[in-house]
Design goal:
single chain, twelve-stranded antiparallel barrel, 60% strand, 12 strands, Porin, 1 helix
């Protein structure tokens, strides 16, 4: 859909979410994309992420907090190069197996505009399916600046064991990738998420990515 329609839909969804009850979402996501599942209220997570520079900031720390059952916020501090990133997400629907969420990603201290998204999920048993769109900044073909483009996002995950979640996702656009990876719970409070990215642009480069996350209870 044209990005002006996605912006309108996202704005309407944010208003609806502020008035409605019940849904949840998280920006921790799969490997590359956010997901519409829950970051529990009062749960505070600290993540350290290292990735190939072609994916994004090579080293960064993420702080994420479930403010209430319909809203969470995430803050990233990048080290190479240094800058800050803010994400936020509002849960609109959580009537399992159906979920719906909206929000924005990638609002940075170096001037990158926030990228609104709208995303749905189907979670049934051990299977999680995600689809949606994000309104992202991309480089003009002539290299003279940025333009907005709606990009499709798709994801799937399978809970292979109580500790192991296998996951894959895709985001359209030449600057994005297809990925495959897993999240493994080393302890109830600590998870690791390594993944491999294969870039959409040709030649298709294979890139590495890894995250370690600690989950704490800020309040109950």
């Amino acid at each position: 859909m044209p990005h002006r329609y996605l912006r309108t839909a996202t704005a309407a969804a944010l208003i609806t979410g502020a008035l409605a009850s019940g849904a949840f979402a998280t920006t921790k996501g799969l490997n590359q994309i956010v997901t519409p599942d829950v970051q529990p209220t009062g749960q505070f997570s600290i993540s350290y992420q290292q990735q190939d520079p072609q994916i994004g900031n090579q080293n960064q720390v993420q702080l994420e907090l479930g403010v209430c059952k319909e809203f969470e916020i995430a803050y990233f501090h990048g080290f190479s190069p240094p800058f800050e990133v803010l994400n936020a997400e509002v849960g609109l629907v959580d009537k399992r197996p159906w979920l719906l969420s909206t929000g924005f990603l990638g609002w940075t201290s170096n001037g990158t505009a926030a990228q609104p998204f709208l995303e749905g999920g189907y979670y049934e048993g051990k299977i999680e399916l995600v689809a949606g769109a994000v309104d992202a900044d991309i480089q003009n073909v002539d290299g003279t600046g940025l333009m907005r483009q709606d990009q499709a996002v798709l994801g799937a995950a399978y809970q292979a064991t109580p500790r192991l979640l296998v996951q894959t996702d895709y985001q359209a656009g030449s600057g994005n990738s297809s990925t495959i990876g897993f999240t493994y719970a080393v302890t109830p409070a600590m998870t690791v998420n390594p993944a491999i990215y294969v870039t959409n642009s040709s030649p298709h480069n294979v890139l590495g990515y890894a995250v370690v996350t600690w989950n704490l209870t800020a309040w109950k």
